[in-house]
């Protein structure tokens, strides 16, 4: 038995066989062949097997993620049927009398190099498609297995160096019981996706891929951030009990599903959920969410081969609004950059992408992309209770410019005879310290604030949210963070506006009493955290917590804050 400590990224306990997600060894020997027809047949067989796998993956992506995510696999299937690629491989086998592996490798590399050197980003992206697809064909020629998370058909735990958000989006919950990775932190986007999918996950174990092999029995303890490999009978039993206890706890939480969130002294706060796709709304409703406090629209743009059209976006936004009925839905405009890239958007390399052309900065530079999204949102606004917020606002001028574009598009739509709601609140995410510091000035112009602590902490503490080596500095309870949060809440209230929080801190059981006492109006978190948070808030007195405010804000360290709250709330 072997035990590893990582970062608890998604609640629950999973026990299953390991499935390592690694690119296989595709090295081969170049061989001379006599029977070229046989080689061509081997090539055809490998192509056919690859096509039928891709068809399955495409169908799976279509069902679980929608048409736009499936489109990338249509492009891959086209590559496999393209005579411009296949004929030269067959010719090479015939004329050079080499094995299919050598012919495939040479022709594929020629195309990959050619596409990679093109100026056009879209064409360069085709190089990645050819590489992806021909690696799959090569794996079949060599008879080595090519891991495909979307094709897993038995219960497993995924072991990987890291998972990209689009890898995570392809996981089928029915079979993937949990995952664990070498890198990442609690607020990396794969961790956030794991929580939306309600799959237990432990990230940042540093060495898991070295410690485990396919088929090993693995326990992912997403509650305490531990991984146990090949447990003894006794340990296995202990974790099965922990798993059962967690299921029982979930049943108790579920009883509060349709209740409002009231503190012990009868004060209401709103508990919303963070979502990435329209499919996530079901989880929000099942977990008793009173709102969608953050819809990360960038997932609509990721895992796609081109920008989603205005109509595609309209359908997604409308679906979320309709499913939520009259409950608020806060949609965040595109937040690309940092760790979120678009394969079809050619951005210059940056030394510090988290400090670069991200989010609203990109949208104000590429107004064409931004206007399309704003139009889609405005068109969807009549289907529910829409609120729009802009991410990564650092200056008032950015907010004014973004809002002016929104109003311009609203006028344009009205002139075109399209109905738009006149009650859309327009707010900002507070993720940058400059904005938190002058929240008073912002509060005069915005309708609401939503504090994005995932970024606010990384920018305030100068500690990369993705880097586990500086995770000790990533301190939500640091008095500097509490003072910034308090400043934002006070500023909002002074102008009669509301302040919410959609960073992961909003669902943290130590932070919840602090935030309740500071007067936060709305808490938006992973859907699975809502019922535990409601249970906790029911037992807390807001008035009592408010009386600790000055003491907490003048403390010197995060440890002091944590110890004080633990003592006062018996945690
Ligand atoms: C945040 O920064 O707190 C936030 C909610 O945005 P994201 O995690 O998507 O950067
Ligand atoms: Mg952010």
Report on this structure.
With 571 residues, the protein is of the alpha/beta class. Helices cover 49% and strands 14% of the residues. The chain is built from 24 helices and 16 strands. It has an 8-stranded mixed beta sheet. The longest helix is centred in the first third of the chain and has 30 residues, at 36-65. The mean pLDDT is 91.
Concise summary:
This protein has 24 helices and 16 strands. By secondary structure, it is α/β, with parallel strands linked by helices.
Question: Largest sheet, order of strands side by side?
Answer: 1-8-7-3-4-5-6-2
Q: Quote the distance from N terminus to C terminus.
A: 31 Å
Portion in beta strands: 5-15%
Q: Structural class of the helices, strands and pairings? A: alpha/beta
* Main sheet makeup: 8 strands, mixed
Helix and strand arrangement:
Elements lengths: L1 E4 L1 E4 L2 E8 L15 H30 L1 H14 L2 H14 L3 H17 L4 H22 L13 E5 L4 H5 L6 E6 L7 H9 L3 E3 L4 H4 L5 E5 L4 E4 L3 H22 L15 E6 L5 H6 L4 E6 L1 H4 L8 H15 L3 E5 L26 H7 L1 H14 L4 E6 L5 H20 L9 E6 L2 H5 L1 H5 L4 E4 L1 H9 L17 H16 L3 E4 L9 H8 L3 E4 L1 H12 L3 H5 L2 H5 L4 H12 L2
Parallel strand pairs: 3-4, 4-5, 5-6, 9-10, 9-16, 10-11, 11-12, 12-13, 13-14, 14-15, 15-16
Antiparallel strand pairs: 1-8, 2-6, 3-7, 7-8
Helix pairs in contact: 1-2, 1-5, 2-5, 3-4, 4-5, 12-14, 13-14, 14-15
The structure holds phosphoenolpyruvate and magnesium ion.
The site of magnesium ion has 4 residues, from α18.
């Amino acid at each position: 038995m072997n035990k590893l400590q990582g970062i608890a990224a998604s609640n629950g306990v999973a026990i299953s066989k390991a499935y390592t997600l690694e690119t296989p060894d595709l090295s081969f020997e170049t061989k001379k062949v006599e029977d070229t027809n046989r080689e061509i047949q081997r090539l055809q067989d490998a192509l056919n097997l690859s096509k039928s796998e891709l068809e399955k993956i495409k169908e799976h992506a279509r069902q679980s993620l929608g048409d736009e995510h499936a489109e990338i696999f249509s492009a891959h299937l086209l590559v496999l049927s393209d005579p411009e690629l296949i004929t030269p491989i067959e010719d090479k086998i015939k004329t050079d009398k080499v094995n299919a592996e050598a012919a495939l490798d040479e022709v594929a590399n020629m195309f990959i190099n050619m596409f990679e050197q093109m100026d056009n980003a879209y064409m360069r992206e085709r190089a990645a498609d050819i590489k992806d697809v021909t690696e799959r064909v090569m794996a079949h020629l060599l008879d080595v297995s090519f891991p495909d998370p979307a094709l897993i058909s038995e219960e497993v735990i995924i072991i990987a160096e890291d998972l990209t958000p689009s890898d995570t989006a392809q996981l089928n919950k029915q079979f993937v019981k949990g995952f664990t990775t070498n890198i990442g932190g609690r607020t990396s986007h794969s961790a956030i996706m794991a929580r939306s999918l309600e799959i237990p996950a432990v990230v940042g174990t540093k060495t898991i891929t070295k410690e485990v092999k396919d088929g090993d029995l693995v326990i992912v303890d997403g509650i305490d951030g531990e991984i146990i490999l090949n447990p003894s009978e006794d340990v296995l039993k202990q974790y099965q009990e922990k798993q059962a206890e967690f299921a029982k706890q979930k049943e108790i939480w579920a009883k509060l599903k349709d209740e409002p969130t009231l503190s012990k002294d009868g004060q209401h706060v709103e508990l919303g959920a963070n979502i990435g796709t329209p499919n996530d709304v079901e989880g929000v409703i099942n977990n008793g969410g009173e709102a969608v406090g953050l819809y990360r629209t960038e997932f609509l743009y990721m895992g796609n081969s081109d920008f989603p059209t205005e109509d595609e976006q309209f359908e997604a936004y409308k679906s979320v609004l309709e499913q939520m009925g009259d409950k608020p839905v806060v949609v965040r405009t595109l937040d690309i950059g940092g760790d979120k890239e678009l394969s079809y958007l050619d951005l210059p390399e940056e030394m510090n992408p988290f400090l670069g052309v991200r989010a609203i900065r990109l949208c104000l530079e590429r107004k064409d992309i931004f206007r399309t999204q704003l139009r889609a949102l405005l068109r969807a606004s009549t289907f529910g209770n829409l609120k729009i917020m802009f991410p990564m606002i650092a200056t008032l001028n950015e907010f004014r410019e973004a809002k002016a574009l929104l109003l311009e598009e609203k006028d344009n739509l009205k002139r075109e005879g399209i109905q738009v709601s006149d009650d859309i609140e327009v707010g900002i995410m507070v993720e940058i310290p400059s904005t938190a510091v002058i929240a008073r000035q912002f509060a005069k112009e915005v309708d609401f604030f939503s504090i994005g602590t995932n970024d606010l902490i990384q920018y305030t503490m100068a500690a990369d949210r993705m880097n586990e080596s500086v995770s000790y500095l990533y301190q939500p309870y640091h008095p500097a963070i509490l003072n910034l949060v308090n400043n934002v809440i006070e500023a909002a209230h002074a102008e009669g506006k509301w302040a919410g929080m959609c960073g992961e801190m909003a669902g943290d059981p130590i932070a919840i009493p602090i935030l309740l006492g500071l007067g936060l109006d709305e808490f938006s978190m992973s859907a699975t955290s809502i019922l535990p948070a409601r249970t906790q808030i029911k037992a807390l007195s807001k008035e009592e917590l408010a009386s600790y405010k000055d003491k907490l804000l003048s403390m010197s360290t995060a440890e002091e804050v944590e110890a004080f709250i633990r003592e006062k709330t018996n945690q």
